[in-house]
Amino acid sequence: MTTDVDLPVSGRKVAGSRAGGSAAGAPLVVALHGGGYNRRYFDVPGHSLLDLGAATGFPVFSVDRPGYGGSAPLPGGATSFGDHAEALDDAIGALWAEHGEGRPGVVLLGHSIGSAIAVHVAARHPHWPLLGISIHGVGDRSPAHIVDAWRTLPAGGPVELPAEQRRALLYGPEGTVDAGTVESAKVSVEAVPLEEMLEIVGGWPEQVAQLAAAVIVPVQYTLAEYDGLWVVEESRVAAFAGYFNAAPWVDARLQAGAGHNLDHHRLSRALHLRQLAFASECAARMPAARG
């Protein structure tokens, strides 16, 4: 069963969903959604990371990033990935203080812009025990037509992608995803701040190598074959993984048969099981890595 939780952090509300798991030695798993979605992205019926975590004994939290869902926006309208990382660093620290007793540490999961922010968080070397990061739906080079499209959007408020565009860019072809799942996932859809869209095709590609080089925990990286927001090639996967040159180990793969929103595809369970296996390995290898 999924439970909603609120975390007051520095007087600002941070909302999340929790699925309890009590397996001995299992780390705390915290998931960060991408742009244009809220925390429910990880809890779509039939494709729920939270349900799978509960069934396998992992305590999993899905957190609304600032300004999404039930989480308050940052003061002054701050929307940069670095600003979000700072705020989420504090929020995860509060989660750890309340729910981390007896746990070996935290494994941070991210999708899309949430992955970029997870890298920012890891590069900060947080005070709470980060064991590893699992990221997917992010790369270092977007197709030219995506960059041009995002940069020509009119200035102003948040952007709502039309349903047809969302289906084309974020999901793979028929046979990789069920139409009913795409419909069910609409409960997690929100408008995305234009600033996020511009940063993911602008500042992020320029900063990712430097940020990744500061990450000193294990990394799991997945890019889907039909991801419409990134240049998808084996060489790009290898290049992206290579940025994490200070990580103890990096597990990188190009996932065939799925699109950008891999968590909602028919292969979602395979992804989530690999993520939880990665979390378990991070916890099991932690003493050796720190010894």
From TrEMBL:
Region (Disordered) location: 1-21
InterPro entries, sorted: AB_hydrolase_1, AB_hydrolase_fold
Keywords associated with the record: Hydrolase
GO function terms (MF aspect): hydrolase activity
Residue intervals of the AB hydrolase-1 domain: 29-262
Domain of life: Bacteria
Protein name per UniProt: Alpha/beta hydrolase
Organism of provenance: Amycolatopsis ultiminotia
